[in-house]
## 1
Amino acid sequence: MAGQTAGFGASSVEARGLTRRFGGNTVLAAVDVTIPASSFFCLLGPSGCGKTTLLRIIAGLDVPDEGTLRIGGIDHTRTPAHRRPTNLVFQSGALFPHMNVAENIGFGLRTQRNMPKSVVRRRVAEMLELVAMEGYGDRSPATLSGGQRQRVAIARSLVRRPDVLLLDEPLSALDLSLQLRMRRELRTWQQETGTTFLCVTHNQAEAMELADQIAVLNAGVIEQVGSGRELYEAPRNRFVADFIGENNIFDGPVGDSVDGVAFPDVDGDGLEAFAVRPEDLRFVALDDVTSRGTGVVRTASFTGKSLRVGVTTVTGRELLAELAPSQGDFVPGQKVGIAFAAADVRRLGRPVRDQVQ
Ligand code: ATP
């Protein structure tokens, strides 16, 4: 759907079989992903999984060894960066130090031939308003805070009205409270322009807050694509369960289920695995569990909203329980029985990455 601000574009991005190798190292292994037009899409994965490489291929700063890339339905696999309907915002958001804020934002427009000065001025003013920096046009970048500089960097990319705005870890250089505020702002700018935003991040909370859809990347392979809620509630495999939120992951089968209550079985061979959310774990009387369902409290902390209790099981596994404060106090060294409702068990498949090797 088009945004509320007129004149902005939006395109879908379709990667098919994108493969990139550096030396003998396969950094992207036949990546298939479809990013819908006008969506906020996040590529999420740990350091070194290939996120930036994929973003650079979409931006036209790198070329895949195999596969195709379509933007807005047009094959752009080998189109030079400056001829693509994309624009990339770098992590540092480096601005030209000798230009003021307005000149920085207008820079990309002034290099476009035949753009009347009045149009440049209007578009720059529109951008200053969008990123809530009216009145800052004459300021030098050196006088801005980190968050303000990043706002200007994003405005400088958006002013060219790309169909797809590419963002590489755009908030990682900011302190946490500013990150939280700017997540909401980024989301608002995407909605107001209707432009497709594709953001690379290793921060799952950030991806969950920003994105309509998230692709979880693991060593060059996409493990799962879905909304934050889908990934949280139905992780397809152990990698996704581990990366999204704070799952307790058990190797081996679920133990006996009595009246809908289950207990962890002995850790098995890893062929079967399941996950239980910290908020779904509960502690029961020791009499109610067999020895394999017991653990020892290691840490207990009160966060205001909840009680977070770390437990080590008899098999040496570290678990985390998030309990309502009304559940009482737990002290390190205390023995507890561990249980969960059978309905809260999420069975996990093998990561896709393990299957392609
Ligand atoms: P980070 O979050 O740390 O930036 P990332 O997921 O963005 O990680 P990439 O930057 O895409 O990861 O890098 C993926 C792998 O490819 C890394 O092992 C990296 O060392 C390697 N790599 C990236 N670019 C090159 C290059 N030009 N030459 C050789 N190896 C490269």
Note: The chain has two domains: 13-238, 246-352.
## 2
Amino acid sequence: MTSQPDCPFCEIINGNQPADVVAETTQYLCFLDKYPVTEGHALVVPKDHIQQFSQLTGTGLFSFLQRAHTEIREEFSPDATNIGLNNGEEAGQTVAHLHWHIIPRYAGDIPDPTGGVRGVIPDKRVYEEWISPVDDLVVVDWTTARSRVTRHITPVFGTDRDYHLR
Ligand code: AMP
Ligand code: ZN
């Protein structure tokens, strides 16, 4: 294994720093993030110290990632997950040892999760063509609407199948 002095993940791989290990093979290790974004946030690393995705050699990364993901799902029962890689400083990488984030997501953990990893550029998170069914459409039966309140409502010629841009 190639190792880098002062690398926090090499320290974990070499057994010099403690970590909550989720899964392990001769080539890869998965452990819980020390500063989790959500409960069960885990990191998957190759045991060789490399920084960038283009330096990755060998096979088996995706099957290991899937195995680690299964462990996280069984342990923490999230509703969904984000799986991501910050590949290089300009993409947000802060630890220079290649690692994938497995971030469990729980219904309601943020008000609107639309777009997920697109949020790396915050104002592009929700793309323009994203449509969702109108959920607050007021349906008025105009043949029987006679009350003081409803007679002041301006008719909207739509149906409950209307869609709107968020
Ligand atoms: P990134 O910004 O993509 O490089 O992610 C680095 C991740 O490593 C962050 O989510 C940190 O919370 C996590 N982290 C930093 N130091 C440690 C450590 N000693 N043990 C476990 N996770 C760490
Ligand atoms: Zn390292």
Note: Residues 4, 7, 9-10, 49, 97 surround zinc ion (ligand 2) (CB under 6 Å).
## 3
Amino acid sequence: MIKAFIFDLDGVITDTAHLHFKAWKWLASEKFGIVIDENMHEQLKGLSRMDSLEKILAIHHLNQKYTVKEKVELTTTKNLYYRKLISDITPRDILPGIVELLEEIKGSSYKLALASASKNAIAILKSLDLFQSFDFIADAAIVKKGKPAPDIYLLAAKGLSVAPENCIGIEDAVSGIQSIKHAHMFAVGVGDKRLLHEADYVVSKTEALTLPNMMQAWNNSLV
Ligand code: G16
Ligand code: MG
């Protein structure tokens, strides 16, 4: 039986992905003199700040060039730039259909949690006026392994006191869908069906993300 919904933030509730990418592009050009390819955009989605940096450096064989301390400084620099980009976020930046969906979920007595990899998640939720809507917000800063590991989704389920098999997780990134599946939850993807083929159910955009559709898909998975 489904008792809870666990949402990703970036790409599901609001579209901050292009701002993360803009910040990485700036850092790569400023600090390493390289141009990051548009193809990287999809691959960086859902990854933690440090995992994103490691991925960018790896492609350009630069991992060994920087010490751990320097890498921490680089991620801090990226975050300062990113924070400027998100400073004017308002409830108008909530993706279509999400406010109604969150209200419907709450009104139907399901529990609601957030499982974002972002350490800026609380600040963003507050800017969107959605902070109060969640029963639990999993803290990305305390999970050992980022997505695709299951840690953040398991932490969210634990925070709600709901067993993972009674949760539906909602994600836009491949790494996020893998995180949900590794946590043994039902995975709903938002985006390209071919890309998110590991999900149990996929909608192309947030408008199509409705409570009856998700419950129907979950029911269908039982037969
Ligand atoms: C988001 C983004 C990632 C970003 C990560 C960490 O995850 O998709 O691109 O690297 O958070 O963000 P921050 O640097 O703000 O801690 P999610 O899980 O909300 O999709
Ligand atoms: Mg996401």
Note: The longest strand covers residues 167-171.
